[in-house]
Amino acid sequence: MTSFKLPLLQNREAALETCAYCPKLCRASCPVADVESSETLTPWGKMGLAWYQARGSLELNSSYAATAWGCSSCFACREHCDHRNPVAETLLDARAEAFVRGLEPPRARSVAKAEPKRRERREASLAALADHPAVDPHAKSALLLGCAYSNQEPDLCRAALDVMLRIHGPVRLLSGCCGAVSRAAGDAETAQREERGLLGAAQGAEQVIVLDPGCAGAGRQEGLRAAGALTLIELVAQRLDLLERLNDMPYPTRWHDPCQLGRGLGVYEAPRAVLTRILGEAPEEFARSREEAVCSGAGGLLPVTMPDASGRIAAARIADHEEAGGGAIVTGCASSLRRFRKSGAEALDIVALIARSLAAGDG
Question: Which of 11, 23, 111, 249 stands 20 to 30 A from 49 (CA)?
Answer without folding.
Answer: 111
